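In this supplementary section we document a worked example of the pipeline. Step one takes a protein sequence of length 251 as its only input; no multiple sequence alignment statistics are reported here. Step two produces a three-dimensional model, which step three serialises into structure tokens for compact storage. The input and output of this example are shown verbatim.
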Amino acid sequence: MSLVLRAEHIRKSFGNVEVLKDINLSVEKGSVVSILGPSGTGKTTFLRCLNYLEKPEAGKLTISDVSVDFSHISKKDIQNLRRKSTMVFQQFNLFRNKTVLENVTEGLIYGYGKPKKEAVEIAMKELERVHMADYAKMYPSELSGGMQQRVGIARALAPRPDVILFDEPTSALDPELVGEVLDTIASVATLGITMIIVTHEMHFAQEVSSKVVFMSHGEVVEEGSPDEIFVHPKEEKTRQFLQRMLKREEG
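The serialised model returned by step three reads:
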């Protein structure tokens, strides 16, 4: 399979704290990559670097036909890079004063230049996919957290990006709502869209992933297939983390 994303030697610091230490990642087209690791280890920061919501000090990134060098990046580079991926956020990040439909069409019209009629058609198709078409005229405040996140997923799907980035998409949800969002993401995975998911849902990651990456203290400790990471981890750090997290899920 061909690579759709390659991150090389990504470094990021906040003040004197080095959060990302020479991160490298290759992602094949159509694959689902889950990034696991303890809180505060740089997973979300790395994800945000991939669409320049955070600015790395160094490193190179290629998504499809766009390549950038973070040490000297132009506004046009940033714009081109951001068109290649979309993001599903922890806190949904929906416009509170816009309807469900408008939340999905806004980016298509103003970010991608789609005519309104076409944007509405695309939006309704994606809302149908995540079982939210019946709520198109409602506002975020009228929806549960799980429903809001499903709208966020529809919004991310609508431009048909090369990569969708999921930043702990269930962490802000009540436990009883987690399943509906995980089921939605699993159904999206069957579409062949490349996804990178930062998650604390271990069983979900094991089931849905093509590749699993374990990070700790700003570094990639190991990566491999779900079987290699969950069943036969090579590193003690990985083993201890998974034992702790799987025990918590089962408890």
